[in-house]
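Entry 14: structure prediction run for V-type proton ATPase subunit F. Input pasted below.
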Amino acid sequence: MSKNKIVNREGGYLVAVIGDEDTVTGFLMAGVGKKDAKQSNYFVVSSKETPLQAIEEAFIGFTNRDDIAIILINQFIANQIRHVVNNFQKPVPAILEIPSKEHPYQPSKDSILQRVRNMLGNTD
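Run finished. Output tokens:
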């Protein structure tokens, strides 16, 4: 896939999820995030015991795959690996930071929203 062009992929694109147990379970029940024939996961359940390196590796792994179009990540987890999230500059996969049951959404910490505001000249 080229850097600035979205190429149609036979079979479509997938959504990956990085989140707490409740978030990932909800998306799995809705049909998002699966295990393919190669036993590759499209989801990562993060807990207090999950090493940050494992989350970083999962995020980087998802961003390097050409079959994933969207990565949903709990915002509080994205905050833990903010340096990795902010370093990702490609348009695909799109990174969407979502709230969790225990951690409400904070627009001021959303990297995508901040990029849009900066592009529009709005620094509020």
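Notes: The domain at 14-119 is CATH 3.40.50.10580 (Rossmann fold). Will compare against the previous run tomorrow.
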